[in-house]
């Protein structure tokens, strides 16, 4: 038997599935960046992969390469036999005694230890049509000495910049929108897992920091089932207030307070709740009384709500609650209520008078209500209504519905 035969026989029992997988994974680090054209042109799939004949064929191919590199059980056995055999005149004249035994020369180009070798398979295909059996004769083995020395391939350092590429703005927008939709659709999953509060915080933060598209999507999601998701609207409003005041460190600490987005969010929510046909849930009043800041535009929405005959009763009650709860704006809310006591609409006027009479029973409201009543009673003696009743500050009491 030759060295290749011995090494191949030794490898057959070691070519298990696990060992072959490990060899493939290790060799993947040595593959070039692009597939060589020669490999692509000659490669054909293995027809009988995993059969005993194919395993023996693979073991023989590996045995030939290991023997050529000076490794393997067959090489070591032949080398030991050569060392035991007494030298002859023919051996003295031979420059490489191992070559005469195995038919394979080992030159200085091969490393001396197994840790220095970089074995890269040169097998492009294991198809039975393209690869024949390697000859076992000494002449056939001698031809393996012509295999060029293997060169160790240098490992390229990993660079993140080489592995990534910039993303277009439109693609980034699409990906972020899709991600936001997935968060919205994970409502049941998050509630089951007990992380609903984390989901709510994530959504409100994204909406406050993102462009208009997220705001529209979030608003549409809330209004699809406002009774169930009204807490998201309240959380959104409070988050906008936090950002407007600059309480978060991610914003510029020198940035001036800007309540534009907060005002827009509050008014859009109020306008939607105002148009709801069923007002029994009281969400309009709850949003106004719970809002951290009531802007002038929000007051206009409230006045419009109070002027609606079908909603005047609820509107006046909301105004009364604001008078009791918002101490810093009590005078402004009280003036709005008293202005409605002489509104041209009878239903609106009666509801305002009803609330004013109930407030008059409170000691802290008697003086401003009586002062307002006496001031307007004096106008009854005038030949015509004074211009003060039709000033800009009074026109707000009768705001057109399309404002």
Automatic annotation (TrEMBL):
Region: Disordered, residue numbers: 81-116
Organism (species): Adineta steineri
GO cellular component terms listed in the entry, alphabetical order: mRNA cleavage and polyadenylation specificity factor complex
Name of the protein in question: Symplekin
PANTHER family: SYMPLEKIN, SYMPLEKIN-RELATED
């Amino acid at each position: 038997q030759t060295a290749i035969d011995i090494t191949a026989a030794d490898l057959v029992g070691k070519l298990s599935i696990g060992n072959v997988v490990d060899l493939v994974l290790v060799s993947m680090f040595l593959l070039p960046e692009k597939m060589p054209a020669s490999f692509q042109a000659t490669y054909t799939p293995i027809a009988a992969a995993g059969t005993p004949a194919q395993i023996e064929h693979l073991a023989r191919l590996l045995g030939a390469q290991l023997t050529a590199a000076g490794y393997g059980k067959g090489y070591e056995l032949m080398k030991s036999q050569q060392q035991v055999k007494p030298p002859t005149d023919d051996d003295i004249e031979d420059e490489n005694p191992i070559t005469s035994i195995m038919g394979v020369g080992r030159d200085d180009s091969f490393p001396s230890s197994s840790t220095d070798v970089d074995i890269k398979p040169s097998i492009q295909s294991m198809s039975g049509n393209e690869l024949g059996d390697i000859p076992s004769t000494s002449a056939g083995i001698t031809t393996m000495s012509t295999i060029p020395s293997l060169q160790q391939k240098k490992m390229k350092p990993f660079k993140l910049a080489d592995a990534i590429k910039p993303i277009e703005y439109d693609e980034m927008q699409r990906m972020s929108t899709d991600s936001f939709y997935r968060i919205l659709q994970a409502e049941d999953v998050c509630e089951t897992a007990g992380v609903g509060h984390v989901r709510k915080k994530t959504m409100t933060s994204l909406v406050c920091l993102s462009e208009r598209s997220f705001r529209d999507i979030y608003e549409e999601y809330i209004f699809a089932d406002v009774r169930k998701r009204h807490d998201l609207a309240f959380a959104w409003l409070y988050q906008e207030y936090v950002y407007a005041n600059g309480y978060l460190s991610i914003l510029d600490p020198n940035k001036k307070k800007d309540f534009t987005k907060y005002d827009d969010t509050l008014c859009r929510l109020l306008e939607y709740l105002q148009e709801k046909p069923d007002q029994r849930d009281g969400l309009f009043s709850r949003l106004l009384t719970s809002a951290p800041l009531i802007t002038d535009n929000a007051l206009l929405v409230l006045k419009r709500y109070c002027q609606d005959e079908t909603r005047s009763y609820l509107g006046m009650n909301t105004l009364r609650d604001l008078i009791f709860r918002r101490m810093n704006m009590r005078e402004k809310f009280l003036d709005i209520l008293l202005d409605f006591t002489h509104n041209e609409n009878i239903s609106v006027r009666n509801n305002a008078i009803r609330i004013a009479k109930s407030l008059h029973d409170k000691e802290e409201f008697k003086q401003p209500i009586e002062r307002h009543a006496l001031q307007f009673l004096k106008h009854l003696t005038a030949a015509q209504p004074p211009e003060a009743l039709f000033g800009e500050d009074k026109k707000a009491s009768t705001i057109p519905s399309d404002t």
